[in-house]
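Re: the pair you flagged

First of the two:
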Amino acid sequence: MTRPREEARLRGRSSGYRAEVVSTPEHVAVDEHDRGLKGRARRQTRHAEATPAFRRLARTGIGARALVYLMFGALVMEIALAGHSSAPADTQGAFSLVERLPAGNVLLGALAAGLAAYAAFRVVQSLAGSPDARRNATWTRVGWMGSGLIYLAVFAEALAQIAGGGAGGPSSHPQPFVHHVLTWPGGPELLGAAAIGAAVGGVALGIFGVLHDYGEVLEHPGGTTLRLAHLSGMVGDLARGLVLALVAAYLFLAALTRSARHAKSLAAALQSLVGLPGGREALGVLASGLVLYAASSAIEARYRRI
């Protein structure tokens, strides 16, 4: 007769009875095998994460992120000062600026490689987790994975720019996609929920910037460097959160009015501020915040504990 994988036994206690689950040896062996495979995979991932090659990969990726935000901030500042920019104020515009430099294709290729490195760094970080239990929460690791996937998409945009096909997809031209979603059953509600989620993400990004302790992630920075990292990172994350909330506001308006014409790309949303009272001043503040985030990323590339 085949034994059950688990047996329940009732044992008397003065306070009553309780059921005790006893695992059979076969069940224990399967559980230990599964845990062993997962533990071995995680140990191997952490071992790769601790190698000098991986540290160089991560620092290169963070440096690439700094360059993208520097170019992005420069484009937003150009809108603030001149009312328009020489390229769209988004990642593709940043790639266009790099491409116009001497040996621009080579530089853009190096930047794309750096973005791929940053995506790999975040994905490995998510899979391996952190030995520090305080930084190993599930939501933290999900955030690392999300960041890795986002930068993988940015890497794909850079490759498209190199190949000469950088016209952009839904992120650069959202109206056809939004119009399609609005025709779905429950499409406006789905679009509105996505907009609210993006707005909440922007708020969360700003809160993270204010509360983040850079002393936990930077290794042996001087006091002045640590203060600069905290200030630039805080202002930069607040600026990034506001930019995300701005795009979310237009997406929510499209859902509310059931009209795709209200949806705007990142570049178009920023450009729309020019005609508003105080719009250029607001753009100048946002641009400064984005440049400060680039400075924070440069400090992180040098001092981050990996």
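Second of the two:
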Amino acid sequence: MKKRVLITGFEPFGEDTVNASWEAVSRLEERVGDWEVEKLLVPTVFGEAGEKVLEAARELQPDVILCVGQAGGRAMVTPEMVAINLRDASIEDNAGKKPRDEPVAPGGPVAYFASVPVRKIVESVKGGGISCGISYSAGAYVCNDLFYSLRHHFEGSGTGVGFIHVPCLPEQNGGQSSVPLEQSEGQSSVPLEQSDSKCSVLPEQNGGQSSVLPEQGDGKGSVLPEQGDGKGSALPEQGGSKRPGMPLEDIVQALRLAVLAL
């Protein structure tokens, strides 16, 4: 039986002229294992990214939608465990939008877990010798906006939805490469805005509909201890001059291995 995965990557944003996510996605083969691969470039714009993916999904009817985004502060590939119902941008998107403390879907649940096998994906990528670890926050920029929008739309359906953040390319940061696998074990990356253990949520998002686990926080969006030194790794929109890089061929291979784990 033919299986189809729709894989998306983002256009460049901010000061970058390339986006590692699309550079990698665009180089994937049309078939990976038993999976037929459909690729889609999406705009780095709140709302519009989700609309474009949903339009393509209506036509292609994929079994799984796997979105890929660039996380400049991360040194390894990080499949995301959860999407939150929050838009909170620290920089403008490519349409000049900069929402703060807004829901992605008014009245929607606080959060959704990914509906793809995140841990299996991590083990598959690590098994290929590529640095990889679970992330428990996709931030609150356009990546999370797309992830949450799709999970909200496909909740209860047979379509799986997942999101993977990848590091920048070495040429985006003067040639600096990421840490080797043996140095990345257990160091799951989290966005900077969680470093004070007070993840900002809207009042209407506290109605008990959250699907996050109790051990994932104290009710204020606290990060897990294994997620690093308490400061986390910044997502690309949060700036900073130190952005670890990963070779493009490694990112492409990580996505192949992720597809094989679906």
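The chain has five helices and eight strands.

-B.
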